[in-house]
Amino acid sequence: MKRNNKDSKRRMRKRKRILNFVLFVMIITLLYLFAFKTKFFDVKSIEVSGNKKMSYEKIVNTSTFIKGENIFRVSKKLGEESLNRLPYIKNVKIKRKLPSTMIIEVEERKEIAIVPYIGSFVYIDDDGYILSIEGKKGETQLPQIFGLELVDLEAGENLFDKLEGNDIRDFIVFSEQAKLLQLMKYINFSDNNNTKVQLNNDIKVAFGPLDNVKYKLSFLSKILKDIEKKDLDVRQILFNKGDNPIIVIDNK
Length: 252
What we know:
Blueprint: H1 2-36, E1 45-49, H2 56-63, H3 76-83, E2 89-97, E3 101-108, E4 113-117, E5 120-124, E6 130-134, E7 144-146, H4 167-177, E8 184-188, E9 195-199, E10 204-208, H5 213-230, E11 234-238, E12 246-249
Parallel strand pairs: 1-3, 7-8, 10-11
Antiparallel strand pairs: 2-3, 4-5, 5-6, 8-9, 9-10, 11-12
């Protein structure tokens, strides 16, 4: 009698396990059919944020996302890889917002300078990446950089990698960090012994050789603040005439 009871309980547990398994499979099947075989999770909208330079259409088309595609079949990885190939894209993050929205968050690279190049104009960011090569400069207050020997440039490449040494890179990077680059109109690296700069207020700076760049730029920043504070009519700032810079007022 006891043995029959044990066998009966064992059969009941087995039937219960089988029933639970069948129920689990049914639930998974229903969820799958609901997620992938109905239009409830089809992409109905694609949101883009963080873009200023690039158009909404350009970003969406590059992402390869299509409205009407099942949101779970959309590959975020492929979308991010595709967008990261665009020169102006620095970072991108893609999210799904259920049930039907894809969200693309981009961080764009910022143009900081222009390099004239065989009849065109090369726009670069603070990491040296070539963002675009345009046939005309357009209306912009970005400084122009002269005196670089460059060949075979393409958008997406790094201009700094094509330069010998890091002196010019350091000058551009540290100038941007010190908020001096935005005050410059022209930078000429033609003479290795004397980099020449013209500021937006027409003050000319003879920077001298590209040594102690960070220190000299910090010194220049202090000089410009002092000039503004004292309202001086300065024509030139000379770093190439000795250990201490010389300020020339009214061409004297």
